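Bench notes, bay 3.
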Amino acid sequence: MKRVILSRKGFDSKYGGRPSPIFKNGDIFSLPIPQNGKSPKKYHELEFNGISGTQALKEVSATQVTSEDFCHYDPALNDKIGLFGQAGSAQSELRNNDVGIGDLFLFFGWFKNYSESGRDLHHIFGWLQIDKIIDGNEAIQEYFKNKKKMHPHAFYKFSNNCLYVGSKKLTLGNKKTPHKGFGHFKKTHKDLILTKDQATRSVWQLPKKYFANSDPFLNRLKWVDKKECITHCKGRGQEYILDATNHPKLIGWLHHIFRNGG
């Protein structure tokens, strides 16, 4: 594993307009952004951990979309095959930073516990370890040709289109884990929350045990307080890439996340 990619996904202030929900019992549900046009899934067809997309929309009091609207269900982490599509400049950013087989996406988004009038958080909700990379519209459509399922990045043609297929089992630092190579975290946990205590959601504090005396950021992120391991996640970027090759303590952080949050 060379790279760990913190990938921003789900409802935001422009698309969806509300934070994804943290339910009263601690369950989390990442609401994908709406799709402008047809897509393989509508919100009411989504289901995870016994929660439907309709329930999740109701929990957040969504006004921009309804359960009958199409959604851009990506990443798709709840089926037999884990899939994540990227395109355009965001895909160029991944390619230019040598993201490849064995690297790990950690997907995060905007969340809130509505039952407690909680604060806005950046919260990790899922993962995908790369087993295969399918590059280009034709190759992606060929991949789905004989499959019963579909994905937004095969349904539409995108510029610089790329599809990442998840591995069967998660391996961290050459150690096999009991986890699949892709999936959703079911419950909220402090170790899945990137946002610093008592701060706005874009202010992150990463655990000193794994990030002190290091500078693993390859793009976008940089320390604003290196001693306290504080960084700011600002702007419209989707992919925040960390170098695990030269900063092996990141593997320990991943083990910690999956041990406590998984």
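Next record in the batch:
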Amino acid sequence: MSTIKVNSISDAAGANGNAITLASDGTCTAKITNNLSNRNLVINGGMQVNQRVSTAGLDDFNVVTGSLYTLDRWQGVGTSSFDWDSARIKQVSDSPDEFSNSLRVDIGNTETPSGGHNGLIRTRLEAQNLQHLAYGTSSAKSCTLSFWVRSNKTGTYCWQIKQHDADKYLLYEYSISSANTWEKKTITFAGNTADAIANDNGEGFQLCWHLACGSSDHASATTSWTAGNSGKLYATSNQVNLWDHADNVWYLTGVQLEVDNGSGVATDFEHRPYGDELARCQRYCFVVKGDDDDFTGFSGYTSATTRSCYPIRFPVPMRTAPTLAVSGTLRMQSGQYDSPTFTSMEMLDPNTSYDGCRIDGTFSASSIARDKPGNLQFQANSSSITFNAEL
């Protein structure tokens, strides 16, 4: 048996220091920049999870005005009543080689932004997940953003990061150089040494990909943390208008935000298993879907002759007490009886740890006695129960 004894291992030129350093106690330290877990601060950056879409007939999202969550953790946003009109957001399989999905924006009718109009794609990051960035201290860390983008419309686009608590932002331009070609973009920015990020479950960062911007919200690109104006969104005057032709499309995937390793070079995208990514998304949105006669998986009992209740345990603790939305119709079902279709449903008593709640269904008068067990059942195709705790 042969043994190699060394104190350290470095590259051939020795210019980059020791890659591996061995200690006398047998431990070692290594400079590793790829394949480390939990690097990516963005959830669903590979656009894999899409809980809100349930059937092939409902496979896209129409923002219209305001904001709308689409693929998990991703919003389409229109400010100052900017009208997305017939534009749609959709999860598609068109993507770079190492990815399976992307988010696509399809423009259907032309629109011209004016005033404070903005059309953009946005994701928000929870504040307590950003504490290791040490904002508000002299040790505030630089970060590197990387993403893949594609469009038939070449030109200058803008990316903006907003720090919620400080109401400050950075604004960068990037170019789509070749039509209908996937391009990888990388942006490295300095940490904010002046303003801390609150250690709570509120908003820490907004990451915004601008697609159109009215002249009232034009601002200069800036690499210095700049005071905002009550959360206002900005893009430069060079920002293209994706809505200038009905056939325009824009794609995004492979979004990663990570602490910079000092090189300004993005590491490989952190591919997490689908189940892990889904669980991260379910902290903010949990959807149960089904068709006619499918069971929801929730069991309960009649609390009155016209009411039944269902204790629910969420798959992961949610960010805050969620709101409840029901699409389609439901009833209580058992082997001995079926309740009439519920006329209303409400959520009660969410736990302070946000890991469960109770939902109650009300139905018209029936002969079902109190304290009878039964299961919650969908009574229409493409039905869903959504618990929403988004930022």
